[in-house]
Amino acid sequence: MGCFLKPALRRIAIAVLLAWAAMLSPAIVNADAPAGAQPAQPAPPAKRPKGFAVPAPVRSEHGAEPVTVTGQETIYDSKTDTFVVKGDAVMSQGGSVLKADEIDINRRQRQARAIGHVHLIDPEIEMWASDGTIDITNETMVLNNAKILAKKDIYHLEGKQIVKLEGQSYEVKDGFFTTCGCEKGTPDWSINADQMVVNMGHTGTAHNATFNVAGYPIIKTPYFIFPADTSRHSGLLMGREGESGLRGFQWLQPYYIAIDKSSDATIALDIETSQRVGGLGEYRLVNGKDDYFWVDGAFYNESLRSEANRVGDITDTQLADTHIPLDRYGIIGMTREHLTDNLIAYGDTVSVSDSLYLREMNVWTLSHGFPTSNFSSMRNAPSDFGLLDQFENAYVRLGGIWNQDLIQPQQFALQRLPDLTVTGRQELFDNLMFADYDAQAVEFYRYQGIDGTRLDANPRVTLPWRWGDYVYGYGEIGSQAAFYDTAGSNISVIPAGTQAGYPHPTCAGNGTQAQIWNPCLALAPFTAQGTSARIVPYAKAGISTDLDRVYDVGWKSIDKLKNVIEPFANYYYVPNIYQGNMPLFDSFDRLNSRSLFSYGFTTRLFAKTAGLPPEETTTDDGAASEELSDADSAAGPVHEEPLSPDTLLPHAGNIVRDGEHSSQIGSLTIQQAYDVGHQVANGSDMSDIEALVHIFASQVATFTSQVDYSPRSHAGVTFADAAVDYQPPWSSKGSNLAMGKALQGSFLTLAFNYANRSDTVIPGTNRNAAEFISGAAYTEIFDFMGVYFAPSYDVASNQALYTEYGVRLKSPCDCWAADVGVTDSYNPNEVQIQFQLTLGGLGSYGQRPFGTNPFQQLGLVGSPTGVLPNY
């Protein structure tokens, strides 16, 4: 029987000690302590001075952070294992702190109820409510008369009842959602609804919803989906609206279709009230980096167009085909497919109904990711396709290229069908030398004019050498050989700025007027056919070195500067072999005689900054400890530093080595060429002196320039261009909210281009390129307004080529922005108005009327499936 009494006596003694301790304890509770350790009877309330010190609680049995509650008065009910803490009650767990007039905690169910002036402070959100219940285990809660503010993204929720689900998901009854949470009072805009489900930063749905502006309902809908979902799902996308003197009012509305994990599609309706009605469609299939199929198709009907509008849009009247058909189409696509690990099938195509299609349209594809975006300036629409087989140090390609000429008559367009290419490298004499080889077999084809077969090869042997750490160089010998089997009439070229002098049916004015805009192609009165061959040997050599010096600076963040000077000299020799009787299909068919020396130097300036000191953290005993950041530990001791969102573009590159950051902040190259026995330029054996400058003042400015100076008799600058990008110190680093396609940050860009008329080939055709100035600038003049200005001016002809004016009205906390821009362009000759509305955190609606901030790194691009790229 004594064996049974000992446990009983032990339990009675523990109960007495716990009851005594409870009567004397201050009002602090370890809500995670085991329930069996509490007294069997209710303890009388005990009052204590505010701020009474107690030992730290033990860690939760659930493995989470411990939960503690403090207050002015504590009442414990042992039957329900419930603590009632009144008067300035505070419950904390990890980085979360809950304050209320009263907090009741049921430890068995791990639930709490907060009553009166409820205020929750969390690392991610901040909440206020009249009362609420909390599930401590799942971190869920039900709040009445509540509002929630997300600190990072400034999302703002209010409602009569808000149910917080696991994570950052919320159910709201009779409330509203907005991102205008930085100012008190009625938000600038909000989505009000009887019932709402919001996943912060992802997506939201609302039932019986209204879109309110300054508290006034503007749009009412029974069901509304927030366009802020990071996952892919079908639905309407932000479109494009604008007004143009040439197009009329334009409305383009896309719809996105999520097919499966690897494929999707977009369709869009395009209405231009003064010109056309049509639609676009895009299908995307992506199975890997080199396995994809993207295709865009468009069809338009031009019945809305007047004859005056049609004629007024044709600036270049010397195109071979200026006819604008009633029905028009365009196809743009690209594909890559791995048939085996090394065998790839590829294809890219641009095909249009007429020569003016690409010039007249302002939307060609519905997403980013295509190799080119300057479709409007393409001189031909190419399509290439084939197979590519890769193997060690070499590859074989069998393909073809089809060109649709958008300038000259299509019968003169040169096609390459088929085109077999073999290229590779072979190492010789235990890597002492290496041999490169390129060989092609091409069948050239055109409807009219000379065409036929060409077999060509370009073998060469290179010997690299190095003398210690001082001098290094190379020597190379090779030859270009070609065999031709051709037939057909040669093609005469009447350059722009001249006239044929005799009738040509394909030239402007039947050959009696000057070619103003474009050269003219016509069949020559003689033909050439048969076989021919030529071999042209050549030789190359080069030598270079580098000199460097390190300077200890110790100025601000710059620890050291390193200057590297790299002088170089090269020689290129080609014997004088006549090739004028050979066919001319591309640049391979001519290798001009040369005995050319090129020489110069490059100097580079690098800056090294010492790494930031490791973050200091404090342990439980108060001692300081050092921790490496996740980026450092993951990247290793030597790695290229990734670009941050506010990193300036273009970027010179940063290298991190053992915590020290090095970056190139400037470079200068000066070079010239001299030919011993041949004219290089303008009857002289000596070329211009060329200088290239690049300066990267990180986060502040960039400067690039090219200057060609003639040392010949008419000494002077023959060509020059310069561009500067500047970001003022007061420029914002971007909003905490996702601002869609809206431009962010103040900036200034200026560009200047000059060409001496005496050094242009045909001065009459180079007015626009001889001297022009362009630029763009955006700045916020008030916290609620910004202005944008982007001119392009031809100094030579005293004519504005392009001018854009823009105004932005915005919220001081960037929860909304309204952009309006007016574009006045010379070609096409039109005035266009574009607008865009951006709701912070949700996205943009409309077409961005402003340009791109060169200091703003955008996915701007954007993701590959981003809709409506800005061309």
Query: Mean pLDDT score, rounded?
Result: 79
Please provide the count of β strands.
50
Instruction: Report the C-alpha radius of gyration, rounded.
Output: 37 Å
**Can you count the helices?**
5
Shape: globular
What's the CATH topology name of the domain at 20-50 and 57-225?
Answer: lipopolysaccharide transport protein A fold
Give the helices and strands, then pairings.
Layout: H1 2-24, E1 28-30, E2 43-47, E3 67-70, E4 73-77, E5 82-93, E6 96-106, E7 111-121, E8 125-135, E9 140-150, E10 156-164, E11 169-178, E12 189-199, E13 203-213, E14 216-225, E15 235-236, E16 240-244, E17 248-260, E18 263-272, E19 276-288, E20 291-301, H2 307-312, E21 327-338, E22 343-352, H3 357-360, E23 380-391, E24 394-405, E25 415-428, E26 433-445, E27 451-457, E28 460-467, E29 471-487, E30 489-494, E31 520-527, E32 530-545, E33 547-555, E34 558-574, E35 594-609, E36 615-618, E37 624-627, H4 630-635, E38 638-640, E39 654-657, E40 660-675, E41 689-697, E42 701-710, E43 716-726, E44 747-755, H5 767-770, E45 771-782, E46 785-794, E47 799-810, E48 816-825, E49 830-839, E50 843-846
Antiparallel strand pairs: 1-3, 2-4, 3-5, 4-5, 5-6, 6-7, 7-8, 8-9, 9-10, 10-11, 11-12, 12-13, 13-14, 15-17, 16-17, 16-49, 17-18, 18-19, 19-20, 20-21, 21-22, 22-23, 23-24, 24-25, 25-26, 26-27, 26-28, 27-29, 28-29, 29-32, 30-31, 32-34, 33-34, 34-35, 35-40, 36-37, 38-39, 39-40, 40-41, 41-42, ...
